[in-house]
Amino acid sequence: MPTLFHFPLNAASRLVRLALAEKGIEAELKVEKTWERRTEFLTINPAGEVPVLVEDGGAAIADAQVICEFLQETRADPDMLGPTAIDRAETRRLMVWFLQKFAREVTDNLVGEKLLKRYLRLGTPRTDAIRAGGQNIHYHLDYIAFLTDRRNWLAGDKLSFADLAAAAHLSCVDYLGDVPWEKHPGAKDWYARVKSRPSFRPLLQESLAGTPPPKHYADLDF
Q1: In this structure, are residues 2 and 53 in contact, taking their beta carbons and an 8 Å threshold?
Q2: pLDDT in tens, 93-148
Q3: Count of CB atoms situated within 10 Å of the CB of 215
Q4: Could you tell me the sign of the dihedral formed by the alpha carbons of 67, 69, 74, 76, in that order?
Q5: Buried b (16+ CB within 10 A) or exposed e, 124-137
Q6: CA 198 to CA 22: how far, in whole Å?
Q7: Which domain holds residue 137?
Q8: Judging by beta carbons within 10 Å of its beta carbon (0-12, 13-18, 19+), is residue 93 exposed, middle or buried?
Q9: Claim to verify: residue 100 and residue 195 sit in the same structural domain
Q10: How many domains does the chain have?
Q11: Which end of the chain is less crowded, N or C, counting CB atoms within 10 A of the terminal residue's CB?
């Protein structure tokens, strides 16, 4: 059984957990507190970041997008990238959008400042960053609605890694109750479909000690 080093409210880790579940792959989950800079973990991934997937033979694959590509190459069913080169390019483009752009403009400003900074005792949250995250999320939710108004899922007709990447980030922000779903019904309808999948249930059942999520967080009919 492979092992996944992760952190519960790390969106990239959540993407890999969703990808593993969608592909029916069981993995042992190990929470890695990257700020402790464990020598054993740094030996596995010198970058010191999660997620890292360690295969049965000991091979370590780091970075969420790299892991997803690896899973698609080694466990082809179901296809999570797309049937054509154009489809796969669009899936990868949207993965980068959410893993980098959304992370930088929204997740880091909200989850990073409001929760992780306090959890790691890194000082007082920056109000300007929180304000920016709260403003930026509207643009991204509008974009999700724009895409799903023209496609069945974000990248095309079928669920893909793009949907999982977007949902992973939104689930972390939603843990704080900071997603203005009432103003974005199109994005809400899409998220409800992803959230209702069996792969999502383990994420919705988790909570950080002392910081419970809002009531709607685990509600499939939110």
Answers
A1: yes
A2: 999 999 999 999 999 999 999 998 877 777 889 999 999 999 999 999 999 999 99
A3: 9
A4: positive
A5: ebeeebbebbeebb
A6: 8
A7: 85-218
A8: exposed
A9: yes
A10: 2
A11: N
